[in-house]
Amino acid sequence: MKRFIIILIAIITALPMMAQEKKGRFSREEFRAKLEGYITQKAALTQAETKTIFPLLHEMHEKMRNVQQQINKLKRCPPSQGAPQKEYEKAVTKISQLEIEAREIQHDYYKRLCKVVPASKVYAVILAEDSFHREMLQKMTPGKSVPGHHPKK
Q1: Which domain holds residue 84?
Q2: How far apart are CA 134 and CA 79, in angstroms?
Q3: Could you give the number of structural domains in the chain?
Q4: Using an 8 Å Cβ cutoff, are 73 and 141 in contact?
Q5: Is residue 141 within 8 Å of residue 11, measured between CB atoms?
Q6: Is residue 145 part of a domain?
Q7: For residue 42, with 0-12 CB atoms within 10 Å meaning exposed, 13-18 middle and 19 or more buried, which class applies?
Q8: Helix, strand, coil percent values for the chain (each to nearest 5)
Q9: Which of 1, 36, 114, 135 has most Cβ atoms within 10 angstroms of its Cβ?
Q10: Domain assignment present for 151
C-alpha cells in the first residue's frame, strides 16, 4: 500500500511536467478538466457532488504537490559526497516525515469529504482517480505495464 501511495504521489507530481498539449506545453486546466470528467463519469457524481468534491480534491492535491516538491528537492540535493552519516540520517528522516505529512493530508481530506458526501462516493472517487492516473501513465509509457494495473483481457 505504501508503494502505491508513493507511486500515486509521484504521478500527481510528475504528470504536470510530462503531459503536453499540442503546443508542447502542459495545461493544468486541461488536465484538471479531463480528471474531473473522468471521475464524474466513473464515480457517477451528481452536479451538486462535483461542486462539493472537486474544490476539496484540488486543494488536497495542491498541498500534496507542495510536499512532494520538498521531497524531490531533498532527493535532488543530497548531502555532499563524504558527508557524515548524520547528514544522511537527517535527510532520510526529513523525507520520511514529509511522506507521512502527505499521507496525513490525504487522510484529513478524505475525512472531510466523507462529511459532505457519502463515503461510498468518496471511495468511488478514490478508485476513479487511481484508474485515471494509471491510464494517463499507460498512455505516456506505451508498451510498458503500470504497477498495480491489470488490463482486462
Answers
A1: 2-20+27-140
A2: 33
A3: 1
A4: no
A5: no
A6: no
A7: middle
A8: 75, 0, 25
A9: 36
A10: no
| CB-based contacts of 19, cutoff 8 Å, min separation 6 | 26, 31, 136, 140
pLDDT tens by residue, 42-82: 999 999 999 999 999 999 999 999 999 999 999 999 898 88
- For residue 146, is it within any domain? no
User: What pLDDT digit, counting tens, does each position of 101-148 carry?
Assistant: 999 999 999 999 999 999 999 999 999 999 999 998 888 887 665 555
Residue-wise DSSP of 105-132? HHHHHHHHHHHHS-HHHHHHHHHHHHHH
Torsion of CA 22, 26, 32, 37, to 10 degrees: 20
Residue 59 forms part of a structural domain: yes
Which H/E stretch holds residue 153? none
- Pairwise CA distance, residues 48 & 28, whole Å: 23
Query: For residue 31, with 0-12 CB atoms within 10 Å meaning exposed, 13-18 middle and 19 or more buried, which class applies?
Result: middle
3-class secondary structure, 80: coil
Q: Which residues contact 117 (CB under 8 A, 6 or more apart)?
A: 49, 52, 53
* pTM assigned to the model: 0.74
